[in-house]
Amino acid sequence: MLASKRILLIIGGGIAAYKSLELIRRLRERGADVTPVLTRAGVEFVTPLSVSALAGTKVFQDLFDLTDEAEMGHIELSRSADLIVVAPATADLIAKMAQGLANDLASTVLLATDTPVLIAPAMNVRMWEHAATQRNIATLQDDGIMFVGPNEGDMACGEFGPGRMSEPLEIVAAAEAALADGPLKGKRVLVTSGPTHEPIDPVRYIANRSSGAQGTALARALSALGADVVFVTGPASVAPPEGVQVVRVETAQQMLEATQDAMPVDAAVFAAAVADWRMATASTSKMKKTKGGLPKLEFAENPDILATVSQMKKGRPALVVGFAAETDDVVENATAKRKRKGCDWIVANDVSASTGIMGGSENDVTLITDEGAEDWPRMGKGRVAAKIAERIAAALV
């Protein structure tokens, strides 16, 4: 997919810049031509010689290079690529992009371009969570800038949280999706997946059974059709797909907030197995056995994420798809759920223990729409995801 594609790689100044060397190698393995632009801060982390050796071409650094600018080099760089990738995209670079600043070669190229841009943010967790950064990100998303990551994890500064740059192969997958000429190119799709964990105390929780396999397959299938996918996942046992924006959550309330933060989207697919209830008040200490009998657990109802999005008065996605995991009267219960929630489609499946579907590799679904119930034969979850993605693409055309 990347064969003969021209990638302009802008390397920002952060510790994650070392990953850009591996990224260049992986892009070239797939046949891409990589032209690197190294910022002044980027030189503090990787050398022009190492970047040039891996890219097999000249490294561009200076906006006021007389030789390059005699040929309007910054304009040529900004227009000659099929895709511009910024990795790492520091908080400073993101701010410059959002505000339209152009005081060095990288920011000038980004301002002068009409080429699609994919950025891989990398920064300290506090910088990522800062209101100014979040405002800048929202601006760039509105401008059509594509994102991959950031991931969550340990950081060089010793802190933990979102802000780690995506791994090189994740960025490669996102670049492939960005350049794909699929029917969902230019569309933004939200997918929720996995279970939620609702704490009882620090060591116990309420949850639904879910591996996250079907949601992961859906995100992968939608991305393969060119969609910009936001993947909101609970603590699933299946790893999230590469090339999508991954948002990890634990509870239903966190999943709702992440869903709302992802708006606006063209379509939303709610494949997560969200717990219906949580503790009214979770204990902050581990609950102990007592001679007085069993503890009394007081439950509260979790937010209904599918209904909340389906019934949005402003900014509702053009297509909202829910899932209904049933054990009895599958079609009847799922049809009633679609009407009650207000979503456009429901994907219903029988998750009785005898089916082996929950946690298995196959699924047996019925797609319920305004036109009625459509039974699909039992098939692998990847194929189910591909069929749903194809139907979504047809609906959004």
Detailed description of the structure:
The structure is a single chain. The chain is of the alpha/beta class and 397 residues long. The chain is built from 14 helices and 21 strands. It has helices at residues 18-29, 48-55, 66-69, 73-80, 91-99, 105-112, 125-129, 131-142, 168-179, 213-224, 252-262, 305-310, 330-341, 381-396, and strands at residues 6-11, 33-38, 83-89, 117-121, 146-147, 151-154, 160-164, 188-193, 197-201, 204-207, 228-233, 245-248, 267-270, 277-279, 299-301, 319-326, 345-350, 362-363, 365-369, 372-375, 379-380. The strands form six sheets. An eight-stranded mixed beta sheet has the order 12-11-8-13-16-17-19-20, with helices on both faces. Strands 2-1-3-4-5 form a five-stranded parallel beta sheet, with helices on both faces. Strands 6-7 form a two-stranded antiparallel ribbon. The mean pLDDT is 87.
List descriptors.
397 residues, Rossmann fold, eight-stranded mixed beta sheet, five-stranded parallel beta sheet, 24% strand, 34% helix, single chain, alpha/beta
Topology overview:
Blueprint: E1 6-11, H1 18-29, E2 33-38, H2 48-55, H3 66-69, H4 73-80, E3 83-89, H5 91-99, H6 105-112, E4 117-121, H7 125-129, H8 131-142, E5 146-147, E6 151-154, E7 160-164, H9 168-179, E8 188-193, E9 197-201, E10 204-207, H10 213-224, E11 228-233, E12 245-248, H11 252-262, E13 267-270, E14 277-279, E15 299-301, H12 305-310, E16 319-326, H13 330-341, E17 345-350, E18 362-363, E19 365-369, E20 372-375, E21 379-380, H14 381-396
Parallel strand pairs: 1-2, 1-3, 3-4, 4-5, 8-11, 8-13, 11-12, 13-16, 16-17
Antiparallel strand pairs: 6-7, 9-10, 14-15, 17-19, 18-21, 19-20
Helix pairs in contact: 1-2, 1-9, 4-6, 5-8, 10-14
